[in-house]
Amino acid sequence: ATAVDQLPPLVNRLIGVTALIGLFGYMYWVSAAPRKIGRSSWFVTLPAGKSTVIQVGIGILDLTLCAAAMYMLMPASPYIDPVSLAVIFITATLLGFASHAPGGLGVFDAALLIALPQFDKEEMVGALLLFRLFYYIVPFAIALTILGSRELWLSTLRRRLRREAAEEPVHGRLPTGLESRDS
Q1: For the segment 20-56, what is each residue's pLDDT rounded down to a tens digit?
Q2: For 118-149, what is each residue's pLDDT tens digit?
Q3: DSSP annotation of 77
Q4: How far apart are CA 37 and CA 34, in angstroms?
Q5: What global pTM score does this model have?
Q6: Could you give the C-alpha distances from 117 to 15, 35, 80, 121, in angstroms and in order?
Q7: CA quadruple 69, 73, 76, 79: dihedral positive or negative?
Q8: Residue 84 has what DSSP assignment?
Q9: What is the dihedral of CA 142, 144, 150, 151, to 10 degrees?
Q10: Which terminus of the chain is more exposed, N or C, with fewer CB under 10 A?
Q11: What are the extents of the domains in the chain?
């Protein structure tokens, strides 16, 4: 992390400990009682303690799996251990979030390139492009395929139901007022 933010290791540790204290404090605060933030009729109900723990766990799992995917895409040499890469990856991800650039585009990539100067830039850019492909573009394409297939299926189903309803003969008596007046 020091290579990315240019801060001494002690300061980075203090930032990490402060973030953990804040996270655990928040989790304790929301688990003590239902919490709402806002004013008068404009408010948001915060997730309860159990939901917050689940959300934090999912976030940790997501970042761990993303860092593992990036580790698999890294050039074979020079060697970097998975924990060091995970720390650099998470720091770069947080910088990307803080930049408000869509997907951290540019900021995330530059942070990784700066933090890992021992790797050949061309190989790192290739690994980053593959990561973007597998993490953003492939899931997007899969989601589009699933959504498109579902919409096509629903459209076909609606047409078939309308056609069957139009072809189905009306059984029973006529609506009131349409009976023959002769009887």
Answers
A1: 999 999 999 999 888 889 988 899 999 988 999 999 9
A2: 999 999 999 999 999 998 899 999 999 999 99
A3: S
A4: 10
A5: 0.70
A6: 24, 46, 12, 8
A7: negative
A8: H
A9: -170
A10: C
A11: 2-36+46-133
